[in-house]
Amino acid sequence: MTKLFFKCCVLLTALTIALSADAASNRAKNKRHNQVQKPAPVAVYTAENPLLKTDSHLISQRRYFMDARKAIRQGDINQALYIKRNFLKDYPLAIWLDYWMLSTDPQVSKFNDVIKFISTDDHKELSSFLKEKYIAYLQKEGQFKKSLQLIGEKPYDDNTIMTPYMEGRQCRYYEALWHLNKADVTAQAFANKMYLQLRPYSNVCSGLIYMWNQNGYLKDKVKLEKFERAYITRNYNDTTRNLSYQLSDTKFSARVARSMKYYDSPENILKLEPNGSDEQRRVAVLAFKRFANLKPEDASLYFDNFAKNFKISETERHEIVQLISRGFLGRSSTLEQVEWVDRHLPAVTWTEELKIMRMRRAIWFRQWNQVYSLYDQLSENSKNEINWRYWKARSATEIGKKQEGRALMIKVSEDRSFFGFLAAQELGRELPFNHEHLSSHAHWPATAAKNKAAVRFFELRALDDNNASIEWREVAKYGTNDEAMLMAEWALNSGNAAYAIDSVIAGKRWDALDYRFPKPYFNLYKKFSSSTSVPISFLYGISRQESMLNPTIKSPVGAVGLMQLMPATAKLVSKQNHWKYSGPKDLVIPENNIRLGSAYLRDMLAKFDNNRVLAAAAYNAGPGRIKIWKSSDGLKRDTAQFIENIPFTETRIYVQNVLLYDAIYKKLLSGKGNLLLKPGEKSYKY
Q: Rounded distance, CA 101 to CA 95, Å?
């Protein structure tokens, strides 16, 4: 009995412990589930969603959403899935949970779900982000077949002028092909092209260059070609010296070493006595090319003797003349230098760059026959650019082909651009504002509520989530015209100028001028326009070009705020006007920025005869450059000739945009807009 009693006690104790453990486990599970079902408030919502009814159900869903997001961040995907399936089936932001679950901690095992997410096409922006993330991840993991499946067809034609992003996508495509033994000569040629370019290629292209090298294509001869390209230029000293070191133990070492003796003073090659060897001639030609690039005026004086002494080939002659020609077709070149180019380099052999440079000098020197004929030699892309279309029309008129010139100019005058407005003014036609207004069929909030991305945008704003900007682009790029423009109208009415502008840019709705050129801080602009006598449209034009009306933006060089003032300029203007200035932090305050910017712009207008063309150029490039850029040979140039020959591409475009924006703002502010240029600006001697 005693033993039996003892055994029963042991069993009873064990059973009690087990039951207690199960009970504790169940209590823990219930506790977790209760936490999910009744989450504590975890966020303070900054705004309500005007496209959704705010009730207890929506508030509850927001809390569940925040809990699910927190679970994903903590790696608890099961918890996030549980919340989504049970409490967020009809919540607008549920798709973001799907995205985060896939994009957080990428895994090959998620690939099919990634494909499914992308193929549903429910969110194009998030699909694009997810695709980019997984292409990079899969290639890193060596999953090239899967990465190629995401990339799809060849992204771009290899001859396209590519941005770094485009280069990276193309490189990933070719790298995947190489790993899958599907690469052909085009992959080799593209990698070769990437390697030979002097500007750094995208980091994404490192894998392709590595494969290209591993397959034996990075030969010493290719390195020599890159060395010689870098050697000639002005700004690649480190690249040149690094490549000379890489070639120091190759069969080209002697040639490279001799070339480097003339690197710092290439004109010393003229002291070399030719010995007839091909190796010496190669060194001499390379050094003279550098001389021609650095000092074209001096090189032109010695070119004929050098060519004769070293018996250079026709190809080498052509390459040297091209280098001198680039120097002779700059903004400060003389008519004699331009004529040197014409004598030494037949137009049929000019590159596109040289054709455009020669066009600008022909415009400057009023060589209208050359302008007229050179236009026909440009590439189709260049021919379609509005400035060259204007100059074709102008040159036709100048050489007596008046009927052709007028017909061409009428076509130009239909374009909303600086040259389009200029053509319209010259023809006495209305400026082509082509202003598109919000449709009468668009109604707030019903029209916007039809767009799921618009609903998500406001919901993310309610949660104070910066991802709202992604939903804004989704609406702008893929919404209907009514939906996108109605959202832009909301942006204007709520003081979100940046959203209004971004809506136009992302959706390429260039005719929606009300949103492309908003008028934030109107009372401040009006106040300082009045105190400085600078037209408010000009102040807005400068600000729109400088900062896209972002009051807190800072440029890489340190310019700050709406009118992108440099701190040193702001300090000087403050001192001249006896204003308090506490440093760059003052410039993000709109009132300070507009006051200082309008005062500085007033000074530029006063300095340059109230001429907005020169004042805008001075605002961008500095007042000291204007005197250098104006005519110094006694010939009169008009506004268009002067602007077309501004040597800095940035300033040339800047001036055109500011004058165009000034005219547009004048139209939006006053309803009047008949002139691009004032009479004094048209008759000014530039």
A: 10
